[in-house]
Design brief:
This protein is α/β, with parallel strands linked by helices and about 325 residues long. The chain folds into two domains: about 160 residues, Trna Endonuclease, Chain: A, domain 1 (3-Layer(aba) Sandwich), CATH 3.40.1350; about 150 residues, no CATH class. Helices cover about 40% and strands about 20% of the residues. It contains 14 helices and twelve strands. The protein has a five-stranded mixed sheet with strand order 1-2-3-4-5, sandwiched between helices. A hairpin with a 2-residue loop joins strand 6 and strand 7. The protein is globular and about 60 Å long. The protein starts with a helix and ends with a strand.
């Protein structure tokens, strides 16, 4: 193991907000469960509220070949051994992990939410490319404390903004979206549902200024719809009969409508800032888009103009490139 993980374990503890405590290498299950499982799942870091109302199990994926392994260990332990409620799993993946493995891990986190486990994957130090992460990981641990490029407080905020639920609705805890892949799923869900009479009726007519773009489908959708995701309400162990049933792991029109336009926690500017500041999206006014992308937006918006009249000049948020 390099130096970055032990550095982050200690630095997170120092940067944690008041009311939070951190424990590195925290065991997920007790010793009896370890004997039954045949392995001992440990989190790189456990961030826990002092009143134990929220526990966030964090894995720092710096450069490992298979970041999905920790997802599988967490899920297996919870399926086979159960566990307390109010737990969240957050995997932090650096740019040193190749894109394909990061995508596989992001999809696994989404699948875990669908099986009843609140799991998320966020970027770790996204402003640093793979070469920079590799260089830092090879440094002596003591030298990392003077590295200006390591903004640990920003990383702590990223975990807490995604890992903590904003509100609970209809048996779901509503979290901010964890990565661009999840946002893309929300974009496609909006387009799929709003083309059906029931979804169109729920959406109605809502002025929109900011739109998220999904390169996989070439579609756009209102940023406010795309910036939040549901996770199962963590109130106790994961029952196997429920874990085998698909649950809602992305935003839907009925859930969005239930949140209410007047709830300040789902303000459009909060959604935009989250995509920009936490997920690295680039906002571009429509007049600054490339000709191909501008044409794609105009063609798309012509189909939905009655439902999404523009509020001022349209701005498209483009996902970060890995």
């Amino acid at each position: 193991m390099g130096s970055l993980t032990p550095f982050l374990q200690h630095a997170f503890a120092e940067a944690a907000p008041r009311g939070w405590v951190c424990r590195p290498e925290a065991p997920l299950v007790d010793k009896a469960a370890t004997r039954r499982l045949g392995f001992e799942p440990r989190a790189d870091l456990l961030m826990e509220r002092a009143d134990r109302s929220t526990r966030i199990w964090i894995e720092f994926e710096i450069s490992r070949a298979d970041p999905v392994a920790n997802h599988a260990k967490f899920a297996t332990a919870r399926f086979l051994e159960g566990g307390p409620g109010q737990e969240v799993f957050v995997s932090m993946v650096s740019r040193h992990v190749v894109t394909g493995r990061a995508a596989l891990a992001a999809g696994t986190a989404l699948a875990m939410r669908g099986m009843g486990i609140p799991a998320f994957q966020v970027d770790l130090l996204p402003e640093l490319d793979g070469a920079a992460v590799k260089r830092l990981n090879a440094k002596h641990l003591d030298l990392l404390w003077s590295e200006q490029s390591l903004n640990v407080q920003r990383e702590v905020r990223r975990v807490l903004e995604v890992g903590q639920a904003d509100v609970t609705r209809n048996g779901h805890r509503i979290h901010k979206a964890d990565n661009a892949w999840t946002v893309g799923v929300n974009v496609r869900q909006w387009n799929r549902e709003v083309d059906e009479p029931a979804g169109a009726a729920l959406w109605g007519r809502r002025p929109v200024q900011y739109f998220a773009f999904d390169p996989a489908s070439g579609q756009f959708a209102p940023t406010k719809f795309c910036a939040f995701v549901p996770a199962p309400e963590a109130s106790g162990p994961v029952p196997l009969h429920q874990a085998m049933l698909a649950r809602q792991a992305w935003m839907s029109m009925d859930l969005y409508a239930a949140l209410g336009e007047g709830d300040a926690r789902f303000d459009g500017n909060i959604a935009r800032r989250h995509l920009e500041e936490r997920l690295g999206y680039q906002p571009l006014p429509i007049e600054d888009l490339t000709p191909d992308l501008a044409l794609a937006f105009q063609t798309w918006h012509a189909h939905f103009r009655g439902m999404t009249p523009l509020r001022g000049s349209a701005t498209v948020l483009l996902p970060p490139k890995r």
